[in-house]
Amino acid sequence: MRKHIFILSLACVATLCANAKVRLHHLISDNMVVQSNSDVRLWGWAAPGKKVRVTTSWSNQTYNCQSGKDGAWEVRVHTPKAGYTPLTIKFSDGEETTISNVLSGEVWVCAGQSNMEMPVHGFDGCPVEGYNKVVVDARSHSGVRYAKIPATMSMKPQQDANVKWQVVSPETVGNTSATGYFFGRMLEQTLGVPVGLIEANKGGSRVESWLDYDNLKKSTDEKLDSTSIYSVKTDYYRQLVWGNGTFSPIQKYTVKGIIYYQGCSNVGYHTDDYARRLGILVEQWRKAFGCGEIPFYFVEIAPYWYNNANGTDAALLREQQYIASTKIKNCGLIGNNDGAYKWEMKQIHPSQKRKVGERLAFYALSETYGIKGLIYKNPSLDNITVNGSDVCVKLRNTDHGIYPLYGIEGFEIAGTDGKFHPAAARYDWHDGIILSSPNVHKPVEVRYCFKNFQLGTARNQGGLPLLPFRAKIK
Hints:
Elements: H1 2-19, E1 23-24, E2 33-35, E3 39-45, E4 51-56, E5 62-66, E6 72-78, E7 83-92, E8 96-112, H2 114-117, H3 131-137, E9 144-148, E10 166-167, H4 178-191, E11 195-201, H5 207-210, H6 213-219, H7 226-230, H8 241-247, E12 257-261, H9 274-289, E13 296-299, H10 313-327, E14 331-334, H11 353-367, E15 380-387, E16 390-396, E17 402-403, E18 411-414, E19 420-422, E20 424-428, E21 432-436, E22 445-448, E23 459-460, E24 469-472
Parallel strand pairs: 2-8, 8-11, 8-12, 9-11, 12-13, 13-14
Antiparallel strand pairs: 1-3, 3-6, 4-5, 4-7, 7-8, 9-10, 15-16, 16-21, 17-23, 18-19, 18-22, 20-21, 22-24
Helix pairs in contact: 4-11, 9-10
């Protein structure tokens, strides 16, 4: 009896091997969006030494490769121009596998922590403004597709993830990243092409959560043995493991760029080194994707009280974000000082995600796609001069004006005693913003919204808020 069972088992194994098909990475699947007009990577696994043939519906060319000893194979396929005509791709190692309803368009990665992860439907007790309007409008944007990578920890870089592409519809739009969707929707309606969003994020994660082993060992003091990592009780703070489990699986995919919303969990944790570490992460990701110096657009953390609305821990992190934006090539920082309502002081997930996503899109449309006429850069400090007890603040990127003209809120000045006082502020077309305070006769320092939670009112002609800053008067 046992002999018959053994023979039957061997027969079953032989049948399975004979019928085995090429296994594709989960992102290489129905409904995917491939980066248009590019040599994109397609990859997967087969029996070791197997010849794999790839053919596409848009070309007569056949692509051939052979799987290695580990069964892995990879080809580069040239994609057509962007369009809404459904495409197919066939893979064969003797038995054929076909993926369908593929579109050629623009592919972006949506990375970061919970404010990027936050879906259109919102979190419990944390709604996204305008949800119902997004749902009823969703059918008009089926050219936007998304793939959400499950948030997973791993000590070793993972090659694949259990994920599938979703076509945006009233039934599916609620589950996609709100910031990512508003970004993708704006790209689609402006460029008139499909947009693919790959969501690889984890709520609460730090920049150290995404850095790889080599960069953490070389450039930080983080402990990298598994005992130390898993002893961090708050799992989403853990270094290394989120990148290995959640980001590594996507790094062969051919993408156009990355949008990033993270930083809250680094408030008070290596804050003074955040700009450098973020720069290392961007370099790491660009190298892994192998698509050149792809654009990296990121979001200033929103106002939040961090247990003390008047504290400056979050302001110091925002300052580091600004420094990073001046050092990282082909990047842009999206101002978000107006990203929370007054009543959201203790809400780490503010509801105004549309403006965040669309500002990211304006930056990409202008810098990456060359669309002219958009106002997309936030005003920022240029220089400061003093005229008696008045302080004159000049700004960059005003686009010919700052408003409101009078009663601008958020500025403070300090004298030689180092104590800051609210400053009366008015806009002068020639001199910039003029500040004064009856409590400061000899100003030596200026700051704008340099607190954990402080909402300013200064905006440029495009309605974009002034980036928070602090500066000593020379």
